[in-house]
Design goal:
This protein is α/β, with parallel strands linked by helices. It has helices spanning 3-20, 22-36, 106-116, 134-141, 170-176, 198-201, 217-227, 231-234; strands at residues 46-50, 65-68, 77-78, 91-97, 117-128, 187-196, 235-244. Helix 3 links the parallel strand 4 and strand 5 (117-128).
């Protein structure tokens, strides 16, 4: 099995989990609502989701174009995030849900995103967040590496062939720890919020059984809302919004 075949295999596995786990669908609805709050309908151009996976965001953003590396019946387009098939300045928003930490060369993607977005267009990223409490959960219970000390590739190109890549800690390192203070060039970070997400972490996500019954979701979400006051201790997810400046 090639690394990219692994990506398609995970999509099929996630689809089965989504269909059989109502708790997961409820949790993700709250995540999508956070993303919708960053969509600015006044910006001209289409909305495109990169790496749509099983395509759930489109239920909340019906006009969005869903894309991924492999053809599936629920997708609108097959494309690579490093080589987008859109005209210069033709898009209003790019949405990446759990995709940024799969970008081996984030600078190469950001250059392509700048090309296709209108000036003032938005790039919205929803990602894992590494805190004192979530780090061991992601590190021990998730198959993807956290990569906290792994060097990040800041090359401006991503030549083929491109291997499967994942480092769950990249968004936390770049947008919250600010390992590169002036990064990224040409973008304004207008939103960067980390929040508690024990309701998600304890749900087992797509690959593990849930540690609590569905009827307790509301209680855990209320606890998440309270604990989000201290994201460095209790954060588990983050939402980042960038605006194209030039």
């Amino acid at each position: 099995m090639t690394p990219l075949d692994q990506h398609q295999l995970e999509i099929q596995k996630n689809l089965r989990a989504w269909d059989g786990k109502p708790l997961l669908r409820q949790i993700y609805t709250s995540f999508y609502q956070r993303i919708l709050a960053l969509i600015d309908a006044k910006i001209p151009g289409r909305i495109v989701e990169i790496g749509s996976g099983i395509g759930n965001l489109k239920a909340h953003l019906p006009g969005a174009i869903s894309t991924d590396l492999f053809p599936n019946p629920w997708l609108d387009l097959v494309c690579d995030g490093y080589d987008l098939p859109f005209r210069d300045g033709s898009l209003s928003h790019l949405v990446l849900f759990d995709v940024f930490h799969h970008l081996h060369a984030p600078n190469a993607f950001l250059q392509e995103a700048q090309r296709v977005l209108v000036r003032g267009g938005r790039l919205i990223l929803f990602e894992p967040y590494m805190s004192w409490s979530s780090y061991p959960v992601y590190g021990l219970l998730h198959h993807e590496p956290v990569g906290w000390r792994t060097p990040i590739n800041f090359a401006s190109t991503s030549p083929r062939p491109r291997d499967y890549y994942a480092n769950q800690g990249n968004a936390t390192r770049l947008f919250f720890c600010r390992e590169i203070p002036d990064w990224p060039s040409g973008w304004n970070i207008f939103h960067a919020q980390a929040f508690s997400s024990f309701s998600y972490l304890l749900s087992g996500g797509y690959s593990k059984p849930s540690f609590y019954p569905e009827k307790r979701l509301g209680t855990l979400q209320r606890w998440d809302e309270m604990l989000s006051r201290w994201p460095r201790l209790f954060g588990g997810r983050c939402l980042v919004g960038l605006e194209r400046q030039k």
